[in-house]
Amino acid sequence: MVRQSIQGNNREPSHHFKQRFSFSVRPILFPHRHLILGFVAAIAGIFLSTLLHLPAQSQISPPLAGGETTIQNRTSRAFEQPAPNLDAYWLDRHAVGDLAFEAAFVTAPANVNPGLGPLFNGTSCAGCHIKNGRGMPEKGQRVVRLSQLTVEKPAEDSGAPPESGSFHALETEAPGENILPVLGIGTQVQEQGVYGYEPEAVVQLDWQEQQGTYGDGTAYSLRSPHIQLSLWDGTPFPEGVAISNRIPQPVFGAGLLEAVPESEILELADPEDGDRDSISGRPNRVWDVVQQAEALGRFGWKANTPTLLQQSASAYVNDMGVTNPLFPDTDNTQDINQDILEAAAVYVQTIAVPARTLLDSPQVQQGERLFAANCASCHVAELHTGEHEIPALANQTIHAYTDLLLHDMGSELADGRPDFLADGNEWRTPPLWGVGLTQTVLPYSGYLHDGRARTLEEAILWHGGEAATAKESFRTLSAEDRAALIQFLRSL
Known about the structure:
Layout: H1 2-29, H2 33-53, E1 70-71, H3 88-102, E2 119-120, H4 125-128, E3 143-148, E4 188-189, E5 192-193, E6 202-213, E7 219-230, E8 241-246, H5 254-259, H6 262-268, E9 285-288, E10 293-296, H7 308-319, H8 338-349, E11 353-354, H9 362-374, E12 383-384, E13 397-398, E14 406-408, E15 426-428, H10 438-441, H11 456-461, H12 468-475, H13 479-491
Helix pairs in contact: 3-8, 7-8, 9-13
């Protein structure tokens, strides 16, 4: 309708303009009509020449990262925008959810946001997911997950941590889960406590460097984390515990990933490597607390959570100590109600996805070709959403660069900690949309599950297992092709 209105307005004024032109101006400009025609022809020629010489890519509609939820924003606030195709109702729900996501909890009793702790890691959703992006491997943002690898109960004098109340019981053990909680602590270290409560453990994180070289002899350095845990009083941590250091993941676009039909994800799976390409992605099957049934895992570093509602509820109770309808306290009391929990989930569902950039760059185009040849078996470029309660998410073609499946990434990235069907070597393929804005949104932030990779190059060089061939291909590329591949990732 807008286009028709503009065209209509152009036709009508043009008619009157010709009348006025012939009536009042012709006596003055008539002698110079050839000059005017020549000038108009020159302008038209310049315009046509420019159009014809534009790269072909710019004359074609670029692929929209998030379908109609895509937004043209490459600033430090790119991950914080509402999807542009939300209707008035869902835009209002998004705004309410934004308040819930930003809300900082405090110790009860309080008039506003009571319920923090008594043990916790952070005080708000936004405090870990900085500007809706990733977090840092630092206290207050990171999460240290645990799993007892031995089934024997430690003796009382073995240095095992004493029972610290029932707080770790809030970390609900679901049917089918294969994570054994650490006695007195549970499955996640809460590094902070409210007044009168000691944190569960002290986390000491150090980095170790190792050197390597590209195929052309160029040197590089990789760092890996070394974590030591001790109790608050200095008592050593028990042996036989798997420790997994995790950083928060970006949350934008998550609603679209939730809307991808399960059938499309399962179609990408090849657990037995039937096509013999050494890539054997497989789905994780987890427990849906709401449905009280097994479900496909989509979220988390090991795809251990089925929905964004459950992901939000789990973060509230495990990261902030805030009980809720999905994970109430042992006496069934709750710090937040269903409305707040749903508001936080809706906010994450309805965040816009930033558009790609530099589509006309020959270097980016070359990098995309290299990526397609070496990386797209796991980082699948295109997915499709199905029906969804939120109309803005339904029936979209998206470019998230993930298959949402588990892949063996090799021993160097392994945490040795299983999670439902995921073993200690497996990780979910992380989406790559927006990865080029990582340093814009949060400078000095890292990549991979524990933030060890300081650059995109380092992230690739840590790949192993199923991705070992792709890593080696990158390592042996020429410097020019390596730069092209990295520039493509920065364009996302």
